[in-house]
Amino acid sequence: MELQENILTFPPESFELPHLVVVGNGTAGVACINEILRYPPKFRITVFGDRTRGTRKTPDDATLPPLAWYQEKGIGLRLGIRIIDVDPETRTVTGEDGSLTEYDALLLATGSTPTVPAIPGAETGGVHVLRSAAGIAGVLKHARPGLRTAVFGGGLLAIEAARALQREGCEVTVIHQADHLLERQLDTAGGSYLIRRMERLGMRVLLDQHAPAILGNRHVESIQLRGGFPDTGRLAADLAVIAADILPDAELGRGAGLQVNHGIVVSDFMETSQSDIFAAGECAEHQGVCYSAGESLAEQARVLAATITGNRGPVYRGSLEESKLTIMDTEVFSAGDFGEAAAGAGIDAEAVRYENSSQGIYRKLVLSGGKLKGVVLVGDASGSHRYMDWLRTGVNLGGLWRQLLFPDTGWIAPAVKKADETELIRR
């Protein structure tokens, strides 16, 4: 095998095997290949990666194998070639360079991609688009005390940018189209506690803004809001920041006619709606959920490898993921199914909550059949390790009522009526 112009070619004997094409040379693609190689040889494998070696570094680079690994395993590698089309009828993929590659089986491991929301006026001067946290430093070069700044977005990147600008003395308003912040990490009530923290720091948060627009001649002057703020519906602004959201990269699947919702829909065997096409990692959606890389990826890779090599049997049932962050100097932890619908999912399902508005502490547990199904902690993440143990083991918590909300201490707050005081709520 030789490396020429970022292409590793096969040894001749491998052409006797069916051809597996892997689109995506990231952690998902490599994890799946590693699992596939545990079985007797089934395929000759070609991997396509967008980037060549030595280009801009990404978090993936620290975990990817060296070129010698591909050579040792007899894997064909095509770097710097983006796949732009998949044709399930002819079983071919088309590269941006015009190349056409046939496959017997196809694995889409395209990950996720930063997606910038379409906001009218985004091309106006004074508008900055953030695709990663690394870009915040560039925005801060324009910051100064009193600068009226609008930040579009309600995810981690937007909130991190808002906090950085606020620290520089800017007047910051966060504008978000959803009804609460951090939809992936928090429920509505948890999001409201984060907003209170932001407001105490002097920021303003405007939610349910579905159609804002940036106004200005050559430079941003104001933001057109969705009615009612202020009387004119406009927010004065000197600087605007649009924070990209991270979404599953499912475009190849959509173009190929596969079933796609948020991500490429896969079965319990990691198959897409086309039997010879598979998907794994952040681009895949299983039972309505797109998982980030981590433990979920290892579980998906094991199931996919068994299925694709003809050892069908293991099934993927979904993964338990956790988020543990510090946002606005506030601890945030969440895991499992904690959404608004979760507490009403069954006859015996219930939500147990503790709220302390003055200290900015919020805790919510969702239980069903005496077992913990989801948890959200804001302002105090103590006990998170024990919650994860309970989620993983499925232990019955019926006898631990007094320890549920503060499992490390066994303490239970007194139930009181005033909303601004310490309160324990069971519904």
Brief write-up:
The chain has 427 residues and is of the alpha/beta class.
The tally of helices reads 8
Which word captures the global form?
Answer: globular
CATH class label of the largest domain: Alpha Beta
Helix content: 10-25%
Largest sheet: 7 strands, mixed
Q: Considering the protein shown, what is the CATH homologous superfamily of the largest domain?
A: FAD/NAD(P)-binding domain
Describe it.
- The protein has 427 residues and is of the alpha/beta class.
- It folds into 3 domains: 3-113 and 247-308, FAD/NAD(P)-binding domain, CATH 3.50.50; 127-243, FAD/NAD(P)-binding domain (3-Layer(bba) Sandwich); 322-426, 2-Layer Sandwich (Enolase-like, domain 1), CATH 3.30.390.30.
- It is built from 8 helices and 28 strands.
- The chain has helices at residues 27-36, 67-73, 136-140, 156-167, 188-200, 251-255, 295-308, 384-393; strands at 3-4, 7-8, 19-23, 44-49, 76-79, 83-87, 92-95, 100-102, 105-108, 112-115, 127-130, 148-152, 171-175, 204-206, 213-215, 222-224, 234-236, 239-243, 245-248, 264-266, 277-279, 284-286, 322-327, 330-336, 350-356, 361-368, 371-378, 423-426.
- The protein has a 7-stranded mixed beta sheet with strand order 1-2-5-4-3-9-21, with no helix packed on it.
- A hairpin with a 2-residue loop joins β1 and β2.
- α1 (27-36) packs across α7.
- The longest helix has 14 residues, at 295-308.
- The protein is globular and about 70 Å long.
- 37% of the residues are buried.
- The model is unreliable at 1-5 and 410-427 (pLDDT under 50).
